[in-house]
Design brief:
The protein is α+β, with helices and mostly antiparallel strands. Helix content is 40%, strand content 13%.
């Protein structure tokens, strides 16, 4: 066998072997993510193979973490195999991946608890929310559209990435929250009124207007100063405190839930107001 044929055979075997290996996603300090295969490290530099585009050298000081999976870059843009596990010595605590959507403890009334999610739906939502943090615009756009279609069950998960380091992720998150305005998003939106990105500020303000029904103006554009925005934010904070107090009073006045013989709550048997003109006092 000629030397040229031997080289071709060896190259084909290497290509087949590399296609079966798990790949990596590199998370950067600026919020971006890059898919590829880590080839090695040398003097503080990580060397990443990105599909068939070529190699990229990234300073380890710019890396937050590296995650093993089966996405090798543009060549395998539709592959979803593999199991995402953080297994790189560079890794340190970060919020690059959205945690479980546990609502923080807060004063005032809490939104009505939703029924437990179907495990398959929960897994799908978590995967789509993760895609909101991806670098590729087509992936984020597709995930955003699907989360909007899912609606209310996805909102607690989406709120977890509304403060993500990547501005494009925050923008996508608030576009979703704006499409399904609810009280559970108020504190997230108020916090974002002073975001460094003007489009995040605008979407947060529009979300608050839809939830509250208040048409108050807000200086979201960069022409306003931070002090002006902070002063305008106080108005929304004061409204929310008053709204919480009002909801608490209403909850105290509400009749207790009627229980069935089994001891479980039965919302259908709770007496409602009599219709006007019915003669019932």
């Amino acid at each position: 066998m000629s030397r040229q044929r031997l080289l071709l055979t060896a190259g084909a075997l290497m290509a087949l072997a590399s296609s079966s290996l798990l790949a990596d996603t590199v998370y950067l300090q600026n919020g971006a993510t890059i898919d590829g295969v880590v080839l090695g490290r040398h003097q503080g530099i990580l060397i990443l193979q990105i599909g068939n585009i070529g190699k990229m050298e990234i300073a380890e000081s710019e890396i937050v973490s590296v995650e093993s999976n089966a996405r090798t870059g543009p060549v395998d843009r539709d592959r979803r195999g593999g199991r995402r596990v953080k297994a790189d010595p560079i890794e340190r605590p970060s919020d690059r991946k959205p945690p479980a959507p546990e609502e923080p403890e807060r004063a005032g009334p809490r939104p009505k608890e939703a029924p437990p999610l179907d495990p398959e739906l929960r897994e799908r939502i978590e995967s789509l929310v993760y895609d909101l943090t991806r670098q590729r615009a087509t992936v984020r756009t597709r995930a955003e559209a699907k989360l909007i279609g899912i609606g209310a069950p996805a909102l607690p998960f989406v709120r977890e990435v509304a403060s993500h380091p990547g501005s494009l992720t925050r923008i996508a998150a608030f576009r979703i929250l704006k499409r399904s305005p609810e009280l559970g998003s108020v504190e997230t939106a108020i916090a974002a009124l002073t975001d460094e990105n003007r489009f995040v500020r605008k979407l947060a303000w529009e979300t608050l207007r839809l939830v509250s029904g208040k048409n108050w103006l807000f200086p979201w554009d960069d022409s306003a100063t931070d002090r002006e925005r902070q002063a305008a934010r106080v108005r929304w904070t004061d409204w929310w405190k008053a709204e919480q107090a009002r909801l608490e009073k209403e909850a105290e006045k509400a009749p207790p839930p009627v229980r069935s013989r089994s001891g479980e709550k039965d919302g259908d048997t709770r007496p409602g107001p009599a219709p006007s003109g019915s003669g019932i006092p």
